[in-house]
Design goal:
Layout lengths: L1 E7 L3 H12 L4 E4 L13 E2 L8 E2 H14 L3 E3 L3 E7 L2 E6 L4 E9 L3 E3 L15 E2 L2 H4 L7 E5 L3 H11 L4 E5 L9 H10 L2 E3 L2 E8 L3 E8 L5 E5 L2 E4 L3 E3 L2 H6 L22 E3 L10 H24 L5
Parallel strand pairs: 1-2, 1-8, 2-5, 8-19, 10-17, 11-12, 11-17, 12-13
Antiparallel strand pairs: 3-4, 6-7, 7-8, 9-18, 14-15, 15-16
Helix pairs in contact: 1-2, 1-7, 4-5
């Protein structure tokens, strides 16, 4: 199969990239091993997407997918397992064995939040359990919340929630924090209550979060925090294995490094969305998808003028 642009990943970044490619007159194939929509599709509610006061993640993902299909973007539910440079073109191999040749590649595989793996986390996800304070903090005005984690994301989330919630706890399994000292002091001075060194054991609640059971890392003492919300900020896992195989430059955390035009270190390869480590929001992913598509279009046009590709 031959296309102008192969897009890997069908979240907001990948689908937007496909739309912008087609609108520039390019053929685009968007490949996704799972259902289209990325993490949006498993987000219970979205309340910060312009144009919708409140919409379920599944519905928003479906609307974006429908838009892409209406624009004649080709979608294939098959994972890309490898991408190699073959002369002036790229050749991708799909999990089903099919080969796809393209003039440019856009990587939009996203990243997944790390989970705690404790009882109640999965059951109460979207019902008080959140992985994104930027997305969900407004839902917890004048409520009691806990942030779990010890890095900058956890600290910034605690500070954000403190401005809205009635009480904000910061739970960390160690006494030392990985986040910036200045941010930690700011959180302490602002009134965030540290619960250290305590390990989360179970998120409590039936239809919604009611508390968090924790255990002291040394004494094994257990106690329960009465809560309305639990924000889990223990890191993310970028889906960058394919990027490593292609040879694009990634940072120490596994995110693909791009410039302002979404170009990677490999000519003809672009990246967009959460896989780059930029602000992890739907609108950001869509902006980057659009930029990556425009950059790919300019690259292909330039190569055609030079007579390198046809």
């Amino acid at each position: 199969m031959n296309v102008d642009v192969l897009v890997v990943g069908a979240g907001p970044a990948g689908l937007t990239a496909g739309i912008y490619c087609v609108r520039r007159g390019l053929s685009a194939l968007v490949c996704e091993g799972k259902i289209p929509g990325g993490t949006v599709a498993i987000t219970p509610w979205v309340e910060n997407y312009p144009g919708f006061k409140r919409i379920s993640g599944v519905e928003l993902a479906q609307k974006i997918e429908e838009h892409a299909r209406e624009q004649k973007v080709e979608l294939k539910q098959d994972a890309v397992v490898s991408v190699e440079k073959k002369g002036v073109l790229f050749e991708a191999t799909l999990a089903g064995g099919e080969k796809v040749s393209s003039k440019a590649v856009i990587l939009a595989m996203g990243a997944m939040h790390k989970s705690l793996g404790v009882k109640g986390e999965k059951e109460l996800s979207g019902r008080g359990v959140s992985y994104c304070a930027t997305c969900d903090a407004p839902l917890f005005k004048k409520k009691r919340v806990a942030v779990i984690g010890g890095g900058n994301t956890a600290l910034s989330s605690a500070l954000l929630l403190l401005s809205l919630a009635s009480k904000t706890f910061l739970v960390h399994r160690r006494e030392e924090f990985r986040g910036e000292e200045a941010m930690l002091k700011q959180a302490e001075q602002a009134g965030v209550e540290k619960i250290v060194p305590f390990i989360p054991l179970e998120i409590l609640g039936k239809s919604k979060v009611s508390g968090l059971k924790v255990q002291h890392a040394k004494t094994l003492e257990e106690k329960t925090l009465e809560l309305d919300g639990v924000f889990i900020c223990v890191g993310e896992v970028p889906a960058s294995e394919l990027a490593k195989k292609i040879g694009v430059t990634i940072d120490k955390d596994g995110y693909i490094q791009v410039d302002k035009e979404c170009r990677t270190s490999v000519e003809g390869v672009y990246a967009a969305g959460d896989i780059t480590g930029w602000l992890k929001q739907i609108v950001t992913a869509e902006y980057m998808g659009a930029q990556a598509a425009i950059s790919a279009f300019e690259f292909i046009k330039k190569e055609k003028v030079k007579g390198i590709i046809h």
